[in-house]
From TrEMBL:
Organism the protein comes from: Catenaria anguillulae PL171
Lineage top rank: taxon: Eukaryota
Name recorded for this polypeptide: Metallo-dependent phosphatase-like protein
One annotated GO biological process: nucleotide catabolic process
Keyword Cell inner membrane: no
SUPFAM superfamilies hit by this protein: 5'-nucleotidase (syn. UDP-sugar hydrolase), C-terminal domain (SSF55816), Metallo-dependent phosphatases (SSF56300)
Length: 527
């Protein structure tokens, strides 16, 4: 059989630049546009014409990332997924961004099963009965039988990085007695021993699942946006394709993933023998460059989808002389992070004249900003979530505890003392500090300073009160586990972050952020 796989499309319905934002005429002239569902359609049709017994799966995070999602909230995504002919869809964390009931309504529109073995939805009325642990493929008559089991699983950190609510329960997928292995055992009891899994769990955590289970031939991954390819000299390659991992039975389980956004589509040919042992595994992901033509009818549909929001999205509100990339934001201050954090800081004046600090989680920055015009669409693509500003009063000691949490994102298991995993670095305006990842956990923070007025910095006072402006995802939900647990509560919410950012850019006219604003910032330092 041939397995086509995608992951982390993030609503990239139309072609995009190398940084994931809308393709410009210059990008087209330079032949630097990628992906889009019209190219996916061309490629998938071509593979189906050439290869027998083709199945197609998606490893989650179809939601969130462009105005196609902001405007349609998944309706056109469901239309695309049905039209392309997916055989299974593993739910991703971003599918929960608008809550469980919204995801449930989306799943009801799909022609393929939504799968995840480590989500218990029995107490969640919006999802109960809609997500299966696995599905069984029976479409083709293959050698030695027809049935192939396909198990889904998702990152257990989903409640901390989405709006999944409190009723659906997410368990660790790994382990000899974990939900993935139980699904394998159930399939074996049904006489099905040719098994693949589709995961929204991340490459490194997929390795753990592969090593701690048995009976799975291939794990199709997502979540970490990992490019896997046999050609290790390609820019950005994280691992070979497919990647073998010794499983609990001492046999190889193979992992594949195809980066993100639909820039790459995976194509893997799999053969089993009469004993359901792998006999052949061949393939590589295919990059959707402009050498692959767009399917005309599909592209016309994409253009029609664009019409309701395109004029507003193209409204120019300012400009920037320098590109601002998210890629530089993990572990050191960055321009785009400072811009968003300062947007929050400037939105609030302390009634008690306490120093005000702005903070944003790096995971909330969903796109880059190119040099040149900044449009409404630019801001809504960078900040697509419906997050609102909140203010959290914190003592200096609590600020240090918060920084100790983000210091867990390098050279550690990421686990706080309470077992919660910190899943994002943070960017600040008005705060700088050094983080030393060579030191023991919870003793990594030093040289913490606060900007008490423009350009004037003072050492943090452990007993003094500071006011940290952030979004409700961090303060009210405890998202990304950045905030100390005792500070997570229902704070008053104000304006939406995206609205604040639009006003910030309009007021600035030119967003020219000197490096001194965001560097050194809060950053990791060499030991």
């Amino acid at each position: 059989m041939t397995l086509i796989h995608t992951n982390d499309i993030h609503a990239r319905m139309d072609e995009f630049s190398s940084s994931g934002i809308d393709c410009t005429e210059k990008n087209r002239a330079d032949r630097r546009c990628f992906g889009g569902i019209a190219r996916i359609k061309t490629l998938v049709d071509s593979i189906r014409e050439k290869d027998p017994n083709v199945y197609m799966v998606d490893a989650g995070d179809e939601f969130q990332g462009t105005l196609f999602y902001n405007y349609y909230k998944g309706n056109v995504t469901a239309e695309y997924m049905n039209a392309i002919g997916l055989d299974a869809f593993a739910v991703g964390n971003h599918e929960f961004d608008d809550g469980p009931a919204h995801l449930g309504n989306f799943i009801k529109k799909l022609n393929m099963p939504a799968i995840s073995s480590n989500i218990d939805t029995s107490a969640e009325p919006g999802l109960n009965g809609l997500i299966a642990p696995y599905t069984v493929f029976t479409k083709y008559v293959l050698r030695f039988g027809t049935r192939i089991g396909c198990i889904g699983f998702i990152t257990r950190t989903t409640p901390d990085i989405s709006a999944a609510g409190r009723l659906a329960k997410f368990s660790d997928p790994a382990g000899a007695n974990g939900p993935v292995q139980r699904a394998v055992d159930k399939l074996h009891s049904l006489g099905i021993k040719r098994i693949i899994a589709v995961s929204h769990n991340g490459l490194e955590d997929d390795r753990v699942v592969a090593a701690s289970t048995k009976g799975i031939s291939v794990i199709v991954g997502g979540h970490s946006h990992s490019l896997m390819h046999k050609n290790s000299s390609l820019a950005g390659v994280r691992a070979t394709y497919p990647l073998p991992v010794k499983n609990a039975a001492g046999e190889d389980t193979y992992i594949v993933q195809a980066k993100a956004w639909g820039e790459w589509v995976g194509r893997l040919q799999i053969s089993w023998d009469a004993e359901s042992k792998l006999t052949a595994l061949n393939g590589d992901p295919i990059q959707l460059t402009m050498d692959i033509p767009q399917h005309n009818a599909t592209q016309e549909i994409v253009k029609k989808w664009r019409e309701p929001f395109d004029a507003i999205a193209k409204t120019v509100i300012g400009s920037t002389p320098n590109a601002m990339s998210r890629g530089s934001c993990n572990g050191i201050g960055c321009a785009i992070g400072w811009f968003v954090a300062d947007t929050l800081r400037q939105s609030y004046k302390s009634p008690a004249n306490n120093p005000v600090i702005g903070m944003t989680n790096v995971g909330g920055l969903r796109s880059d900003i190119a040099a040149g015009d900044i449009t409404v669409g630019t801001i809504l693509t960078v900040l697509p979530f419906p997050n609102t500003a909140t203010t959290v009063p914190m003592t200096g000691a609590q600020v240090v505890a918060m920084l100790e949490n983000i210091a867990l994102t390098q050279n550690s298991d990421g686990l706080r003392a309470d077992g919660k995993k910190v899943t994002s670095f943070a960017q600040y305006a008005g705060l700088r500090a050094e983080l030393d990842s060579s030191k023991a956990k919870f003793a990594r923070v030093s040289k913490v300073e606060v900007e008490v007025s423009e350009g004037k910095w003072e050492a943090l006072d452990a007993a003094k009160t500071y006011e940290i402006v952030m979004v409700d995802f961090l303060s009210n939900i405890g998202g990304d586990a950045i905030l100390p647990a005792e500070l997570v509560k229902n704070y008053e919410t104000r304006q939406m972050l995206s609205d604040l950012a639009l006003e910030y850019v309009k007021a600035a006219k030119v967003l020219d952020i000197p490096a001194a604003k965001f560097q050194p910032g809060v950053r990791f330092v060499a030991a």
